[in-house]
Amino acid sequence: MSKTSSKKARKFVAEDPLYNFSYCVYAGGTPKDAANYFHVPDLDGGEEAPHTAGVTISKEGSNAVVIWFPTTTVHYLTISHEATHAILFMFHERGITAPSYGNDEHFTYLHDWLVSQIVKKLTVVWS
């Protein structure tokens, strides 16, 4: 069982109106708890791995992604890492070309927004 039980998990959705996409965040419990909570039981969240700092659970054809962290205290680099996975999945789903040098402002602004939504709700480790 996770260090944070699923009852004490922090759960929220960051709704992106520009791309009509939902970033579902679940901190605590297991990836399976997260997928079930957000009513996406057909997603393969796998089993909890003690060494895993975070998981982004996605499925082709979806308007949402689930971002899971094992506890409610998360390192800022892990938040940034999982946010990147989630945004790149959304770009793939929307047929948006992945960012490259000189064509990356859309990614960086969205990344800033998503990370800010997550750090508002979790306990963040900054060092």
The count of strands amounts to: 6
Percent helix, as a range, is 25-40%
Q: How big a fraction of the residues is strand?
A: 15-25%
Mean pLDDT: 86
Helical segment count: 3
Strand order of the largest sheet: 1-2-4-3
Shape: globular
Q: Report how far apart the termini are.
A: 26 Å
Topology order in helix (H) and strand (E) letters: EEHEEEHHE
Q: Which structural class should the secondary elements be placed in? A: alpha/beta
Low-confidence stretches: none
Radius of gyration: 14 Å
Largest sheet: 4 strands, mixed
Domains (count): 1
Summarize the structure.
The chain is an alpha/beta fold and 127 residues long. Helices cover 32% and strands 23% of the residues.
Please provide a written account of the structure:
- With 127 residues, the chain is of the alpha/beta class.
- The strands form 2 sheets. The chain has a 4-stranded mixed β-sheet with strand order 1-2-4-3, with helices on both faces. Strands 5-6 form a two-stranded parallel ribbon.
- It has one domain (10-125).
- The chain is globular and about 40 Å long.
- The model has no long low-confidence stretch (mean pLDDT 86).
- It starts with 9 loop residues before the first strand and ends with a strand.
- The chain is 32% helix and 23% strand.
- Strand 1 (10-16) and strand 2 form a beta hairpin.
